[in-house]
User: Which sequence fits this backbone?
């Protein structure tokens, strides 16, 4: 589900960014790119996940450490009705607690370290996302800086412009604007991953350590007839395409551009029909 996780993170980032006051392209796109990347991070507890293989032995060591920690945490905290499993995959990293913890640390780094800390966190997410979604997401982030430069020199776009006359300055201004909100991108991405796993047959124990029906690691999941198999036709033919469409329409200005285009086509068509009559 790597692609679907990243796409859902991208859409969530685009939707949430305006809610925290991030409205310019140079703020929204890096924020959403980070959310897309960190929506893959929970699967670092699986040795076969792309996140675990991204940096070769480095990420494999981190993955192994996380799996060991998750297994210990599961055995220490499991309830009387929790299954006798290893607790290594879809456990410690697949919880709201983990998302909030990492999000809090990222927010602190963004607040104290400024734009360079935000850049480091965002680039990490961008690399994770690009490994699954491809280079287009990197181009989108670079395009955000370029778009900000265009806005800066257009008189009728002053409301959307960020300070700076070069792509580098515009992007730096966007990163500074994100600041501690980068923690929201990190936490949101991880939480969206958990929600995505809850749609599958296996479910996800993201409410840990809240005890439910005697289980501390209770897998939250949809009713049986609504669940789908990871990598199946539901994900590939329905969910992924819907997320791609949503990811385009949620871009800043995309909906307005689409409606204006539709209105222009309708107007032209109407004039053509009237002329023919």
Assistant:
């Amino acid at each position: 589900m790597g692609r679907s996780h990243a796409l859902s993170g991208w859409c969530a980032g685009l939707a949430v960014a305006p809610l925290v006051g991030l409205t310019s392209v140079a703020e929204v796109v890096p924020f959403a790119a980070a959310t897309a990347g960190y929506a893959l991070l929970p699967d670092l507890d699986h040795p076969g996940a792309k996140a675990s293989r991204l940096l070769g032995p480095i990420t494999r060591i981190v993955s192994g450490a996380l799996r060991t920690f998750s297994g210990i945490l599961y055995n220490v905290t499991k309830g009387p009705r929790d299954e006798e499993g290893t607790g290594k995959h879809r456990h410690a990293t697949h919880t709201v607690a983990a998302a909030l913890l990492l999000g809090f640390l990222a927010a602190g780094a963004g607040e104290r370290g400024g734009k360079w800390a935000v850049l480091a966190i965002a680039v990490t997410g961008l690399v994770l996302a690009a490994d699954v979604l491809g280079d287009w997401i990197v181009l989108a982030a670079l395009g955000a800086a370029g778009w900000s430069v265009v806005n800066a020199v257009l008189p009728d776009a002053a409301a959307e412009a960020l300070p700076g006359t070069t792509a580098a300055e515009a992007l730096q201004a966007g990163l500074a604007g994100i600041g501690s909100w980068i923690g929201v991108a990190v936490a949101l991405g991880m939480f969206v991953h958990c929600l995505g796993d809850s749609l599958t047959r296996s479910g996800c124990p993201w409410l840990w350590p809240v005890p439910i029906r005697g289980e501390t690691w209770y897998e939250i999941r949809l009713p049986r007839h609504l669940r789908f198999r990871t990598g199946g036709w539901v994900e590939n033919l329905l969910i992924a395409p819907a997320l791609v469409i949503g990811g385009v329409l949620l871009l800043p200005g995309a909906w307005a551009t689409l409606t204006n285009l539709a209105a222009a086509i309708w107007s032209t068509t109407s004039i053509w029909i009237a002329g023919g009559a």
